[in-house]
Amino acid sequence: MNYELSRHAHTALMEREISEEWLERALQTPARVEPDDHDPDLVHHLVTIPEHGGRFLRVVFNNRVAPCRIVTLYFDRSLKGKL
């Protein structure tokens, strides 16, 4: 999937030490897909990252533009034991 990172997403990727491979895994094979509560243009993809202690990566992006635009990405602690 083609994508571009927002400035915030690029910074988050670097600061949170999230690999682009993990980002692409979330985009291509999410364990769960959720709509955004506030913006109908945004989608949340969640994936477990076993090589990072089984933590859950949440990637929020706009898939109504081409290429899709990654808004933010982070390890979602609220999902521990739920996915």
Q: Report low-confidence residues grouped into runs of 5 or more.
A: none
Give the strand tally. Answer: 5
User: How many domains in all?
Assistant: 1
SS summary, helix count: 2
Q: How are helices and strands ordered from N to C? A: EHHEEEE
What is the level-2 CATH architecture name? 2-Layer Sandwich
User: What is the CATH top level name?
Assistant: Alpha Beta
Helix content: 10-25%
Tell me, what's the shape? globular
| Mean model confidence by pLDDT | 93
Q: Which structural class do the helices and strands define?
A: alpha+beta
Terminal Cα separation, in Å? 24 Å
Radius of gyration using CA atoms only = 12 Å
Briefly note the CATH topology name. Answer: YaeB-like fold
How much strand content do the residues show?
A: 35-45%
Strand line-up across the major sheet:
1-5-4-3-2
Instruction: Give a quick account of the main beta sheet: strands, pairing sense, barrel closure.
Output: 5 strands, mixed
Describe the 3D structure:
Helix content is 22%, strand content 37%. It contains two helices and five strands. It has helices spanning 7-15, 20-28; strands at 3-5, 32-35, 42-49, 55-62, 68-75. The protein has a five-stranded mixed sheet. The mean pLDDT is 93.
Task: Note the main attributes of this structure.
83 residues, alpha+beta, YaeB-like fold, five-stranded mixed β-sheet, 5 strands
What is the structure about, briefly put?
The protein is α+β, with helices and mostly antiparallel strands and 83 residues long. The protein has helices spanning 7-15, 20-28, and strands at 3-5, 32-35, 42-49, 55-62, 68-75. It starts with a strand and ends in an 8-residue tail after the last strand.
